[in-house]
């Protein structure tokens, strides 16, 4: 005996709805996976930079510690590679010699706030206070013309964009996350960066919590050179070029 199934119009609509929802869910996940765009901008307001058009930018966050920064600077000097260092004001005021060395050796300085504050979870006044304290530190160190900042935890919202713009800073995120702070092993750090191409901003760390970055860095730089990618600072990357961002939701 054959079985026959009769679908009324209501059932067909339900099936169609499920198919449509499934399609758009799959498409969203696909686009999210290939785009790797973790940062945004307000629709008509200030923008957060996560990508440029010229070269590749190595960026290092430093919030604390005394051990990792100097070896990484030594390695960058050997490789004749420039980078952008986002420094917490609290770290910079304790390590003025290293900050001055960065500038002298051609690296760019950006501000990583003063304390480790999640800008997306605090009031506007706290963000302003944190940026002001950091700015005061760099003024005392006579580090001039700082134009870049990065949210200390990487999290930010539209208020953060507005405030950083008021301070005349461009908020910088990243398009490639090395995940070096998790200490997954040098091979995995290298693999995490291996997809880098022209215009990418790479997130690395030179705080003491990132214990494997120094060992992974030579291979990362070698791979970028083999792809004929020039290492530039973030400002060099975005000068007279289009930076990319997306609307804050």
Could you give a quick summary of the protein structure above?
The chain is α/β, with parallel strands linked by helices. Helices cover 42% and strands 11% of the residues. The chain has helices at 9-35, 69-79, 89-92, 96-104, 124-140, 158-166, 186-193, 213-226, 234-238, and strands at 48-49, 57-62, 84-87, 108-111, 148-149, 170-172, 176-177, 201-205.
What proportion of the residues form beta strands (DSSP E)?
A: 5-15%
Low-confidence stretches: 1-7, 15-42
Return the average pLDDT rounded to an integer: 85
In total, the number of strands is 8
User: What is the name of the CATH superfamily?
Assistant: Glycoside hydrolase/deacetylase
Largest sheet: 5 strands, parallel
General description of the model:
The protein has one domain: TIM Barrel. The strands form two sheets. Strands 4-3-2-8-7 form a five-stranded parallel beta sheet. It has nine helices and eight strands. Strand 7, helix 7 and strand 8 form a beta-alpha-beta unit. With 249 residues, the chain is an alpha/beta fold. The termini are far apart.
Topology, element by element:
Blueprint: H1 9-35, E1 48-49, E2 57-62, H2 69-79, E3 84-87, H3 89-92, H4 96-104, E4 108-111, H5 124-140, E5 148-149, H6 158-166, E6 170-172, E7 176-177, H7 186-193, E8 201-205, H8 213-226, H9 234-238
Parallel strand pairs: 1-6, 2-3, 2-8, 3-4, 5-6, 7-8
Note the main attributes of this structure:
single chain; 249 residues; alpha/beta; TIM Barrel; 3-stranded parallel beta sheet; 9 helices; 8 strands; 42% helix; disordered N terminus
């Amino acid at each position: 005996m054959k079985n026959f199934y009769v679908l009324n119009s209501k059932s067909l609509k339900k099936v169609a709805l499920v198919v449509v929802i499934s399609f758009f869910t799959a498409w969203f996940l696909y686009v999210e996976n290939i785009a790797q765009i973790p940062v945004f901008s307000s629709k008509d307001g200030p923008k957060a930079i996560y990508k440029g058009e010229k070269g590749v930018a190595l960026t290092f966050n430093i919030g604390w510690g005394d051990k990792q920064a100097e070896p990484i600077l030594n390695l960058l000097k050997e490789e004749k590679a420039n980078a952008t260092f986002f420094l917490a004001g609290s770290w910079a005021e304790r390590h003025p010699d290293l900050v001055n060395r960065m500038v002298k050796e051609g690296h760019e300085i950006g501000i990583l706030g003063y304390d480790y504050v999640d800008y997306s979870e605090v009031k506007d006044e706290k963000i302003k206070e944190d940026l002001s304290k950091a700015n005061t530190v760099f003024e005392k160190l006579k580090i001039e013309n700082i134009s870049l900042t990065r949210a200390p935890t990487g999290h930010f919202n539209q208020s953060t964009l507005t405030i950083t713009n008021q301070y005349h800073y461009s908020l910088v995120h990243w398009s490639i996350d090395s995940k070096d702070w998790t200490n997954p092993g040098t091979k995995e750090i290298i693999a995490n960066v291996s997809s880098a191409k022209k215009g990418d901003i790479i997130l690395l760390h030179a705080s003491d919590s990132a214990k494997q970055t120094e060992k992974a860095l030579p291979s990362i730089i070698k791979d970028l050179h083999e792809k004929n990618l020039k290492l530039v600072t973030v400002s060099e990357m975005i000068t007279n070029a289009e930076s990319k961002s997306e609307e804050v939701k």
